[in-house]
Amino acid sequence: MIEAQELTKKFNEFTAVDHLSFTVSPGETYALLGPNGSGKSTTMRMLLGLLRPTEGTARISGHDIRKDIVAAKRVMGYVPEEPVLPERLTGWEYVNYVADMWRIERGAEREEEIDELLTLLDIRDASDDLIETYSKGMARKIGLIAALVHRPKVLILDEFQAGIDPRGAATIKEVLNGLSSRGATVLMSTHILEIAEQMADRIGIIQEGRMVAEGTMDQLRQKAKGQASLEEIFLDLTGGPDMQMIAQYLGDAGDEG
Amino acid sequence: MSLTDLLILLRQDLNQTFRFVGTGRRSEQKSVFRRFLGPIIAIVVAVVIILAVTWIVPLIGWNTIAALISQNLAIGSTLFNIILLFSFIGSIMVSATTVANSQRMEYLMTMPISLRTLFLEKTIIIIVYSSLLWLVIGTPLIIGFAIVSPLPLAFLAIISYLVFMLVLVTIGVAFGGLLGLLFSRIVAGRRRLRQVGYFLMSTLAILFSVIWYYFLYSSEDSALFEWFFQLAEQIGLTSDLTPGYSVSVIILGLLVGADFGLIQILVVGVYALFAGGLAYLNAVVSEKAHYSGWLMSGSKRSSKEEIVIEHEPWDPQPIPGFTFNKTISASIWYNITNVRRESRVFARYLMGPLQFVIFFFIPVLTNPEGMGFFTPFLIIAALIPFSTSYGLYFAGYETVYEGRNLLNLQLAATNMEDYVRGKIYSAVPFTIAASSLVGVLILLVYVSFWFYIPLIIGAAVFTNLASGAVAANAAAIGGDFKAQRMVTRQRGSSVQMPIRGWSILRAQLLPNVIGYLGTFSMIILGLSLGAPFAYLALPIYGVLCWQIMRHYSRSAGLALARIEASEYL
Questions:
Q1: CA of B297: which chain A residue's CA is closest?
Q2: B342 touches chain A (CB under 8 A)
Q3: Is the CB of A12 less than 8 angstroms away from the CB of B298?
Q4: CB-CB: which of A73, A93, A130 is closest to B112?
Q5: What would the mean pLDDT of B164-173 be, rounded to a whole number?
Q6: How far is A218 from chain B (nearest CA, A)?
Q7: Fewer beta carbons under 10 A from the terminal one: N or C of chain B?
Q8: How far is B291 from chain A (nearest CA, A)?
Q9: Measured between CB atoms, does B28 come within 8 Å of chain A?
Q10: Percentage of chain B modeled with pLDDT above 90
Q11: Residue B298's closest chain A neighbor by CA?
């Protein structure tokens, strides 16, 4: 379970996250949406203990991130937007290394499970190659496996679908749905609104570090006066494109062409 | 903090560093021999040192050696303290850099460990790396002496050396790391102060090394060592309160039987605890620095408050008084801005040539009366490496450091010849500044040479133009366009040059030949036929250099335009 209470992060004068509160229950998938620079990644980084909140706090499965971040990390798995992995380890070594850090008992059972994940995400054949030889998509898959290897109670994913092939993305969606239905708490950020619409039980839309709307799709529709799609709701709440400027640009471009 | 976590982190880090099998991208795999070359060299060096010691010491006689060492424990003390000092100087910015680059460790930071443990592990790794050279050289020496020593406890010196060396290096690294973090705190958020600070520190480092070279080459061997040990004594490196002294007394005592007591063992114990404490403190301060965000380069996000930005009209004319086409002016602006904003590199580029032109002045400085006549010629001779080096750095190295930006230039279908020319021209203002300074210097030491000063400045500029083009062409042919990704080849690194093989030889040799032949031909002409004749030759030299510049910049442009993306991506 994730309970963010008045989470705030300031960088000097700039407030990146402004008194943000939300709760994600076990078995629930929550999508955090917002324009670029709205504070999604900063929020996630605070939950993960990579940044310390300026104000407020959060509890991860009951562990206060200010008081016991190591205990909180122990129940979390994280898939970053751009994974930076140890290039001179093989995929197999890296996942085992992560498993060691989470103190998962070594042995046949662990290895079988890792093997299963590698096969599931179609990367088993490359698991003995060094990570430096991986493509971006392969690195993300290994990153995801590393996040799943300790069977986290809370899974945080930042743009998990980026750079992954359609088959891989479909597999991940199924895995996440499965984990969620078994009681895992899933918090994800994405710019692909269809993914949020398909997968999330609840959606939070943040802008300039503040929560501007939160709820299930139906609740968001009601708030946005019956807008049909999440894209329409999102644009309605965060501001759509400036059609006048687009027309002006296209006109200019047309004149030049 | 858990010891198990620390050990797992250390094991993986060392596993990655000392991995010899299957490393490198598939297309860039090194041969097995090259991968093992480092350890092979280390083992060969160790064996040679052990054999040399066990062969030489009996020839001289153990008693003589033992007496010599026992009487000169202060030398050992100085050497050990210098190791500490080197570790300290070499590690000043290491912790700050580790924290600043912590995003690269995100996968580690999300693991169930405290950041303190993580930073402690990184400090230990730096200590291991910093000790390697001393361990590889020093351990075989101690082993050699232990073999020939008749003392029963001599072999204990080997273990003592290994442990004490780590203690010394830990003190140096941890203390340097803390100082770097303090500097970072002071300059946090003050970009200009940081720039100026880096520039001054780098300049001072270069000047210090120049003075060092001067003393090294201008003193007689014995005088140098005498001076050196006097200095060491004055700054307290031989003091029996220093860590180096206690370490020296114990290790050499075990080897040759010099007296040492319980107090020295206790002192080393205290230093070991101190070292551990400093390393831990380093980790604590690093964690604090990470969380407090001192080292963050500012938010990448736009401000919440609407700020109306008024841009100046975009028309960079980086060399006042000259108008160039768009590509050239953008290239000059980009090159100067790029170098200037990394003030450490800027200082290295501008002051770097001092490190070798000092050799021109050693005869004058050591024998000012006898060399008086040659002084202005030596000053002119010293200017030429500045002209050629500025060409090499600004046009050669910076062409290589374009790296991935070559993709943008190729996609934009930039006229690469013009782009290269921009790089070449970008060095000219600095060459004019350096040659003007040289002009002032000539006026000070040999005022009757004033007539030649404009000629010298003109010749320096022409040499610089030709040098830049030759260097850019060499860079286009033999540059490592991925150099910025290697610590040893990055901008400002003096370990490896970004241009490889024969190309770097060409980039350095040809410009100097042109510069020396051209400049001194004109001076000799002036001195033998009259100064106006030298000025008559200047346009000829100018045309020659201009033609060289045109030829090589075209050639470099063509080569750059044809470079395959796999070379730089």
A1: A11
A2: no
A3: yes
A4: A73
A5: 92
A6: 30
A7: C
A8: 6
A9: no
A10: 30
A11: A11
- Mind listing the pLDDT tens digit for each residue in A201-243? 999 999 989 999 899 988 888 877 766 788 888 887 788 777 8
The two structure tokens encoding residue B295: 């080292």
pLDDT tens-digit map of B320-364: 888 888 889 889 999 998 888 888 888 888 888 887 777 777 666
Residues 104-143 on B with a CB inside 8 Å of A are 104-107, 109-115
Which of A73, A138, A238 to mutate to test binding with chain B, by most B CBs within 10 Å of its CB? A73
Give B379-416 as a 3 state SS string.
HHHHHHHHHHHHHHHHHHHHHHCCCCHHHHHHHCCCCH
- pLDDT over 50 at B59, yes or no: yes
Mean pLDDT over B241-266 rounds to 83
Q: What is the pLDDT of residue B301?
A: 46
- Domain positions in chain A are 2-75+152-256
Q: Is the pLDDT of residue B232 over 80?
A: no
Asked if the C-beta of A67 comes within 8 angstroms of chain B's C-beta atoms, the answer is no
- pLDDT at residue A64 is higher than 70: yes
CATH number attached to the domain at A2-75+152-256: 3.40.50.300
Nearest to B138, CA basis, from B109, B165, B113: B165
As a three-state string, the secondary structure of chain A is CEEEEEEEEEECCEEEEEEEEEEECCCCEEEEECCCCCCHHHHHHHHCCCCCCCEEEEEECCEECCCCHHHHHHCEEEECCCCCCCCCCEHHHHHHHHHHHCCCCCCHHHHHHHHHHHHHCCCHHHCCCEHHHCCHHHHHHHHHHHHHCCCCCEEEEECCCCCCCHHHHHHHHHHHHHHHHCCCEEEEECCCHHHHHHHCCEEEEEECCEEEEEECHHHHHHHCCCCCCHHHHHHHHHCCCCHHHHHHHHHHHHHHC
**Chain A within 8 Å of B34 (Cβ-Cβ)?**
no
Q: With contacts defined as CB-CB under 8 Å, which chain A residues touch B112?
A: 70-71, 73-74, 101-102
Say if the Cβ atoms of A11 and B296 lie within 8 Å.
yes
Per residue in A143-196, pLDDT (tens digit) is: 999 999 999 999 999 988 877 888 888 888 888 888 899 899 999 998 888 888
The pLDDT value given to residue B429: 94
Please judge whether A51 and B291 are an interchain contact, meaning their C-beta atoms are less than 8 angstroms apart: yes
Listed residue (A91, A58, A92) closest to A75, CA to CA: A58
